[in-house]
Specification:
- It is a single chain.
- This protein has 142 residues and is mainly beta.
- It has a single domain, classed as Metal Binding Protein, Guanine Nucleotide Exchange Factor, Chain A (Beta Complex).
- Helix content is 10%, strand content 44%.
- It has 2 helices and 11 strands, in the order βββαββββββββα.
- It has an 8-stranded mixed sheet. It has a 3-stranded antiparallel sheet with strand order 1-2-5, with no helix packed on it.
- A hairpin with a 6-residue loop joins strand 1 and strand 2.
- The longest helix has 7 residues.
- The relative contact order is 0.22.
């Protein structure tokens, strides 16, 4: 993925802001059961790597959602702030909290085999199943 954008954004109440040094030009949607439960639908996010700075950190609560990832949210307004891969300190930020999402392209859908039938995207994207994702990204279980 091409990373040439700088990203800024905040939660709904403004208590937490972030500056990301690099933001991917494309975003993805995750259809896994955990993401759908977390946001009430597919989790649409953009990769930001580890070059991200948060202000208002005292308002961030982190939920340890799996052995390899955690999710952060504002403890004042409830806005989901990030999905983070622990081992690589790699952040995915919800597209909707970016100040400027102009020009982003929908590039990939994760856990396509867990997507419920009640919604569908018309965009042509790369799709990955649970098995493909675990083979490609998951760290070895300890």
């Amino acid at each position: 993925m091409s990373k040439t954008r700088v990203g800024k954004g905040s939660c709904l109440c403004g208590s937490v802001q972030f500056d990301a040094g690099e933001v991917s030009q494309s975003f993805g949607a995750c259809h896994c059961e955990i993401c759908r439960k977390w946001v009430g639908g597919p989790f649409m996010s953009v990769s930001c790597g580890s070059d991200i700075k948060f202000t208002g950190k005292e308002h961030i609560t982190v939920y340890d959602s799996s052995q390899w990832a955690e999710r952060g949210f504002c403890n004042k307004c409830g806005t989901g702030l990030f999905y983070k891969l622990k081992e690589k300190n790699f952040y995915h930020i919800p597209v909707g909290i970016l100040e400027n999402s102009e020009g982003l392209k929908f590039g990939v859908q994760y856990f396509i085999d867990q997507k419920p039938e009640y919604y569908a995207f018309l965009n042509e994207t790369t799709t990955l199943t649970k098995a493909e994702i675990f083979a490609k990204f998951a760290p070895p279980l300890k």
